[in-house]
Amino acid sequence: MQDLEEKRLAHYSIQRRLARGGMSQVYLAFDEHTQHNVAIKVVHCSEDDYFLRFQREVKTLSALSHEHILPIIESGVHGSWHYCVMPYIERGTLRERLAKGPLTQEEAGSILEQIASALQFAHDHGILHRDIKPSNILLKDERHIYLADFGLAKDIKENTTITQSGCLIGTPEYMAPELAEEPATTSSDIYAVGILLYQMLTGRVPFKGSTPLSIYWKHIKEQPTPPSLLNPAISHAVEEVVLHALEKAPGRRFKTVQAMAQAYARALQTPDQIKVVQLQDAHIMSGITLGVPTQRVIPVTASAGSSRRRVHPAIAALIAVLFFMLPLSLGFSMYKNTSLQAPMAQGASAQFASLNSTLHEGPPIQLRKSTSSNVQSNNQQGNGQGSGNQAKGHGHKHGHGHGHGHGD
To answer: Mind listing the pLDDT tens digit for each residue in 138-152?
Structure first.
C-alpha cells in the first residue's frame, strides 16, 4: 500500500497518521473551513478491490443518518487518492475502556441500548454491519456512543460479494457459528452484539485461541462459560439475556437486536433469583462429620428459545458424593441409633431435593462441522474512528478500519 505523501487534501491539512491497514489509512487532519480536527480515511486509486469496498462504505454511511452512527462529513477525490472525512472522536473506543475492567450491568445496558438503536436502524434499512466489536464503538462522552466502521457492511439482499470465495470475513472472536456455511444475516449481527455484551460484563470474550481458525472453531463446538462464573455480580436474568443472544442456532436467538436490548432492560429490573441452601452438618459416620458449606445456587429456568445452563462441576461433584454417601449414612445410623435415623433422613432428603430441583442441564446441540478452511480476521488496530486488521487464511493482512485500539 502506498503512503499518503501530500500535506493537504482539499482544504484539510494533514497532521499525522492515526492508523494504517491493508486496505486504507486514516489520518488526523485539520479542517481549515470549520477550524476543527477531523479523521480522514484514504484509499489509493490503484487498489481496485479496496476502492470498491471503500465506495460501498461511503454509500452506506451516506444513507444511514442516525444519532449513534458515526457520520461522513464529506467524500471526494484528490489526485490519486479517494477519501472520506469523519468527525474525530478524541475520547477513544470501548476497547480502551474495557482495558480498565468490565462495566457494571447498568453501564453495559446504556451502551447496549445505543448500539441496538443504531444497528436496528441499519437492519431496517437493509444493511448488515458484520464487524461489531469494541474498537468499532466510539465514546463521544460518558453517555453517548457511535457505531463506526461500516467497511464490511453489506446489503441484506445483495448477492454479489467482494470477499474471495471460500473465505470468512470478520473478526473471529465475534463471528457467529453459522457463517461457516451460510451468508451473514441480522442474526449473525445479533450474535456479535451478544459477544460484545458478554465482554462488557466480564472483561473478556467467551472464546480465545492461538489462531483465527481455532477461535472460530470454538464458536461452533463449545458453549460459553456462564458469565456469572466470571463476574458474580451478574444477575441470573441478565445472564439469560446474554446466553440467549449466543445461541448456536440463529433461529433460537432474539429476533431483532431491539428485542435483545428490551429484554436486557427488563432483566435489570428483575430481582436476582438466588437461593442460598444451607445443609447442616450431616453425620455421615459415627464420629465423623461432613460439614457442607453454603452453596450459592442459581436456578435456571428455560426461557423460550434459550439453552439451559450447565451444572457447575463443583455442584455436580457434591451431588455425586451425597448420592453415594447418603444411603450409607442412613444405614449406619439405623444400626447405631435408630432413634436418630428418621429425622436425619427426612432433613437431608428435603434439603437435597431443594438443591437438586434448582439444577438443570439441557441436551447438547448438534452442529455440523465447518468445511471452510479460510478465515479472514480483523485483529483490530485503530485510532478511535473504528477498527482494524484482517487476516486471510492463517496469515494476516491489515484492514481498512480506523480505531484507536490495537485489538479486542
So the answer is: 999 889 999 999 989
Q: In the CATH hierarchy, which top-level class contains the domain 94-271+378-404? A: mainly alpha
> Nine-digit cell at 91?
475520547
DSSP, res 172? G
Query: How many angstroms separate the CA atoms of 330 and 218, rounded?
Result: 45
- pTM metric for this prediction: 0.69
Confidence of residue 2 (pLDDT cuts 50, 70, 90): low
d(CA 138, CA 160): 30
* Dist. CA 282–CA 289, nearest whole Å: 6
Grid cell in block for residue 38 = 477531523
Torsion, CA 10, CA 11, CA 13, CA 17, rounded to 10: -50
Q: How far apart are CA 39 and CA 61, in angstroms?
A: 15
- Could you list the active site residues? 131
Domains of the chain, residue spans: 8-87, 94-271+378-404, 275-357
263 with 237: CB under 8 angstroms? no
Which single residue is written with the C-alpha cell 475502556?
A: 97
